[in-house]
Write a structure and sequence with these properties.
By secondary structure, the chain is mainly β. It contains one helix and 47 strands.
Length: 670
């Protein structure tokens, strides 16, 4: 468990608050962001620059928000497993300000108990306690050069709710300690000593030379010893402030590690695997089998490894299904199929849970696609006859991974000096390419100019000075253009005359239909023309919008002329309103003259005005000055005498005609 905040080690955070990271609990808490109260906060967990978790929620009136804890927000899609070195970054809906923290390096590596030695003849005292002595030692590693680790702000924690007296069942030893969380400090102080006199003792050391941290509990009852040994052992470090043991109640719900209360998404090792989306399908001429080969796709960070697959062929005259399971390897042969029938091949991946079935495409059984031909008349090829034309090429295979081409290969034919490759199709609308001549010893060719989705019969004939021999044939179908696979819109953030968005990458519909880019479409609610911006990655911004007008943002993935619109999860609001952003750079009040000197900036400088009032509710309260013009450079100024009396709260609020609002503190100068 690691607490941390923004900026360099040993300094206050760049922002006004504190970011607390509970890595073993996959939990993050934001505290003290009062200036951002009421704004939407987006929290990202990054590892090596890649996002492994994201959550969105609204800061309460105190600037507090937590994720993966009872009463807090859930992570979106997957609950990340936060580890030392991971970055937690937070941004806010109302301003460009961001904060981040790096999870510190201390990691628990070993917990060892000495065994408990009881004193006397084990009689219990009036409180039913078994007294004696036992120690529990927690050992871990850390990086002495870690700038996010401060020994003065570090605790070793053992958490066990059974150590609360009120949870001890009647008749059982309650122990001496009544502490659900028992902490040991590397640098103890009077307010946080190690242990409690007469109840339990503790020591802790950190050795930079060996890069180890060791903490030892000494317990004086059998119950305390057992509960400390069986508890949850964590390291806790933080960068700013004196924080309570926030989040440890997670342990009381027996959800360590894993998702929080309320049905939050599981962690990566509880997610179903990602199944392959492409494979090589082949069926030899005249066979009743289909050969399927695939590659294991990349899985989410910290996800359980794929350990097996279930591959099925579905089709034939009676729509039968042939299924094979594999606990290892990435290929399978599906046998006993109907020759000449078309089957759809599907695959499921297994990592302790089965994924949904993923279609790998269709194949015609016995078509020769990827199969091997035999010499004419069967039997063994007798070899070349120097006085005759060569025989039919063996090993003919034709495959297509594109919309308009096919790759053809065969085994070298004895006596051949060249080959002729042709393609024909029973589909009258299909384009037929010109024959291709290949000189020996080459045994491959590429046919181009084919029609997407058409089936072709490919023929290869060998030739020499005596003429052309018989041809071998195989069947191949080109791929059809397919729209990109479904993808999710994960974040929509309004800004000044703009909307920013993030989304997951859309996978190609098939290998021949790569995703060429995305369109961000912002459609205004007042019926005017939508604004469209192209993007190539998984983030983008639509600019040139109108503040205070509601827009619905849509992200569309493109593959040629085919498109797929992004799915909007229930946790994402894609109907947002761009607004102006104002800041207060100076706020002073002179009491003897009731004089106000206030200045600031606004992003909208076109016929825009700001309005300043007393109080912390934007747009209401006693007027200080209204209709203050915003200059061309975005600045505005108020210099007012004999204004209203400033209340003791010292808070003012500023709104603009372009929809911005903020709350600031006044400084009393006299």
């Amino acid at each position: 468990m690691t607490f941390a905040t923004m900026a360099q080690a040993g300094t206050p955070p760049a922002g006004p608050g504190n970011i607390e990271i509970f890595n073993k609990r996959s939990m993050v808490a934001l505290e003290g962001y009062t200036a951002q109260a009421g704004q939407e906060a987006t929290v990202e967990v990054l590892r090596g620059g890649a996002t492994i978790g994201i959550g969105v929620g609204t800061l309460d009136a105190t600037g507090f928000l937590e994720f993966n804890h009872p009463g807090g927000e859930c992570w979106i899609g997957v609950t990340p497993t936060i580890k030392p070195g991971d970055e937690v970054r937070v941004s806010f809906s109302g301003e460009a300000f961001t904060d981040s923290a790096i999870t510190a390096s201390p990691t628990v590596t070993e917990v060892v108990g000495s065994g408990f030695t009881a004193t006397g003849n084990l009689p219990t005292d009036p409180e039913n306690r078994v007294r004696g002595t036992g120690t529990v030692t927690i050992t871990g590693t850390y990086d002495p050069a870690d700038p996010w680790f401060d020994p003065a702000r570090f605790n070793i924690e053992t958490v066990n709710p059974e150590n609360d007296d009120d949870k001890t069942p009647p008749g059982e030893d309650p122990g001496l300690s009544d502490n659900r969380a028992m902490g040991i400090s590397l640098v103890p102080d009077a307010e946080h000593p190690n242990g409690e006199p007469g109840l339990w003792e503790a020591t802790a050391t950190a050795d930079p030379a060996t890069r180890t941290i060791v903490g030892t509990y000494t317990l004086f009852t059998k119950a305390d010893y057992d509960r400390v040994l069986e508890g949850d052992h964590v390291f806790a470090a933080w960068m700013a402030g004196e924080e309570p043991a926030l989040g440890l109640t997670q342990n009381e719900f027996e959800e360590i590690p894993g998702p929080g209360m309320g049905g939050c998404p599981p962690s990566p090792d509880g997610q179903v695997p990602t199944a392959p989306t492409t494979a090589q399908l082949s069926s030899a001429t005249g066979s009743t089998s289909v050969e399927v080969a695939w590659e294991t796709p990349a899985q989410p960070a910290d996800g359980s490894p794929v350990t097996g697959y279930r591959v099925a062929a579905i089709g034939g005259a009676h729509a039968e299904q042939e299924t094979a399971e594999r606990t290892g390897g990435t290929s399978v042969s599906l046998d006993g199929l109907e020759a000449g029938a078309t089957y759809e091949i599907t695959i499921e991946a297994y990592n302790g849970r089965w994924s949904a079935a993923q279609s790998l495409g269709t194949v015609v059984v016995g078509s020769g696609t990827g199969g091997t031909t035999t010499p004419p008349g069967g039997g063994t090829d007798p070899g070349p006859d120097p006085a005759t034309a060569p025989g039919a090429p063996a090993g003919l295979a034709a495959t297509s991974a594109s919309l308009d081409s096919a790759d053809v290969s065969w085994t070298a034919t004895a006596g051949a000096t060249g080959y002729t490759v042709t393609a024909t199709s029973a589909d009258t609308a299909a384009a037929v390419p010109a024959p291709v001549t290949i000189a020996a010893p080459a045994t491959t060719a590429t046919l181009t100019g084919l029609t997407s989705g058409a089936t072709y019969t490919v023929s290869v004939a060998a030739s020499n000075a005596n003429g052309e021999g018989p041809a071998s044939t195989a069947t191949v179908s080109t791929l059809r253009a397919v729209a990109p696979a479904a993808f999710n819109l994960t974040r929509v953030v309004p800004g000044h005359e703009s909307i920013a968005a993030e989304w997951t990458a859309a996978a190609p519909g098939n290998p021949a239909s790569p995703v060429s880019g995305y369109d961000l479409v912002a459609t205004p609610a007042d019926g005017q023309a939508p604004v469209t911006v192209a993007a190539t990655g998984t983030t983008g911004t639509v600019s040139g919008l109108r503040n205070k007008v509601e827009y619905t943002l849509t992200v569309v993935a493109k593959s040629g002329t085919t498109t797929t619109r992004g799915t909007v999860p229930a946790t994402v609001d894609n109907t947002v309103t761009p607004t102006d952003v104002v800041t207060v750079t100076r706020a002073q009040f002179r009491a003897d003259r009731r004089e106000y000197k206030i200045s600031g900036t606004a992003q909208d400088s076109t016929a825009n005005r700001v309005h300043i009032r007393l109080g912390d509710v934007a747009g209401s309260g006693t007027t200080i000055q209204l209709n203050v013009p915003v200059a061309a450079d975005g600045t505005w100024t108020v210099d007012l005498r004999n204004g209203p009396t400033l209340p003791t709260s010292n808070r003012i609020n500023v709104t603009s005609d372009s929809g911005a609002r903020t709350v600031a503190l006044m400084t009393r100068t006299r």
